[in-house]
Amino acid sequence: MKKARLAIGAILVVAVGWYLFIKPSDYIINFKVKTTPGTVMQSVISWNYDLPDSEIIQKGIAEVVQQRHFGDSVVNYNYSAKMINDSITQVSVGVKDLNNSFINRLTIPFSNSLFKTRSIANVDTFFEILREHLDQIKIEVTGIEKTPAIYCAFVSLKGLQVEKAMGMMRNYSYINEVLSSNNVELNGSPIIEVTDWNIKTDSIAYNFCFPIKRSENLPITKDIKYKRLFEKEAIHAVYNGNYITSDRAWYALLEYAKKNNIDVENQPIEIFYNNPNMGGNELDWKADIYLPLKQDDPL
Q1: How far is it, in rounded angstroms, from Cα 123 to Cα 118?
Q2: Quick one: 186 and 108 in the same domain?
Q3: Most distant CA pair in the chain: distance in Å?
Q4: GyrI-like small molecule binding domain: which residues (predicted)?
Q5: Can you tell me the distance from the alpha carbon of 241 to that of 285, in angstroms, rounded to the nearest whole number?
Q6: Are strands 225-229 and 73-83 parallel, antiparallel or unpaired?
Q7: CA distance readout (Å), 216 to 100, 155, 184, 220, 257
Q8: Residues 130 and 245 in one domain
Q9: Cβ(269)–Cβ(211) below 8 Å
Q10: Strand runs (DSSP E) across the chain, as ranges?
Q11: Which of 1, 37, 65, 248 fits a 20 to 30 Å CA distance from 211?
């Protein structure tokens, strides 16, 4: 009996020591949502732009750390996510006050402290913003299809994922004016060809392409170049929603590839069929999104 008591006591000491001194977070909040981990993380990053005294200090496809300042407190919100079935993602938010961690751990089990209530309120706010965002987009993965073969005029751009739509808007009129003033015949809807996607830094390099009819008298400028996009096998999705967040479909395609053991190139191709300047219901805006299959290296 004495040994059993000693063993129980030792276990309690270890458990309390872990809780007070080793546990990564002071408080953990969990929720489930019908989307992909990547969409959750991108939504945290987008939301953070609207918050005062807040910054993203770590990025990843399934984990983001947001650091916020409240008076003399510096608080880290560690968002981590994993899919638990074909459509549902489990999100865990570990919250830690870097200045008052010990006292928080002592008081949280016994009271609704400011730290605890504020943490719950902030995560609830994000959850509602995420739900509203998901109501404004639709993604349907249709399986493996072929990308279109097309000849195009393009400009090369790079920046953060969230800046992709702005890059398109800045260059749309310029490319269109050069082509139309030189009587170049368009041959399809605008295309984004991502040439490099750095998931860790949330940045991309890409070509903004206008499909055209090839001719011998194409205008020569410093920025506009020409190339053929060749047909490729790719996982395909239909995206409906604001084109600023069309990258949400990239994460759906990555999850599909992971689930079906398909090797892919992290170089999405997007085809946009609507002109955002015309307005309308954003759920009526359509884009075809492709994630090319990895090609075998030539012998």
Answers
A1: 9
A2: no
A3: 95
A4: 144-294
A5: 6
A6: unpaired
A7: 70, 19, 10, 11, 41
A8: no
A9: no
A10: 27-33, 54-58, 63-70, 73-83, 89-97, 138-146, 150-160, 191-198, 203-211, 225-229, 233-240, 269-272, 286-292
A11: 248
Report pTM: 0.90
**Alpha-helix residue ranges (DSSP H) falling in the chain:** 2-17, 37-48, 101-107, 114-135, 164-181, 248-259
Q: Count other C-beta atoms under 10 Å from residue 195's C-beta.
A: 12
Residue 4 neighbours by CB distance under 10 Å: 8
Best CA proximity match to 139, nearest among 253, 41, 44, 33? 253
Rounded Cα distance, 62 and 89, in Å? 10
124 or 19, higher pLDDT: 124
Residue 267 and residue 163 share a domain: yes
Q: Which residue has the tokens 């299809």?
A: 145
Nearest to 129 by CA among 44, 255, 72: 44
Distance CA 73, CA 99 (A): 6
Identify the three-state secondary structure at position 1. coil
- Give the 3-state secondary structure of residue 16: helix
89 and 74, same structural domain? yes
Token pair, residue 272, equals 């946009």
**Which tokens in the block code for residue 267?**
């170089």
Question: What's the angle, vertex CA 38, arms to CA 61 and CA 74, rounded to 5?
Answer: 65
pLDDT digits (tens, 9 = 90+) for 136-162: 999 999 999 999 999 999 999 999 998
Looking at the DSSP bridge assignments, the partners of residue 193 are 207, 269
Check residues 103 and 48 and name the one with the higher pLDDT: 48
**Sign of torsion over alpha carbons 263, 266, 272, 276:** positive
Looking at the fold, whether 121 and 150 belong to one and the same domain comes out as no
**Tokens of residue 261, six digits:** 């053991």
Strand partners, 68: 54, 75
Number of domains present in the structure of the chain: 2
Q: Domain check: are 43 and 147 in the same one?
A: no
150 forms beta bridges with 229
Alpha carbon distances (Å) from 189 to 56, 150, 192, 262, 284: 35, 11, 10, 28, 16
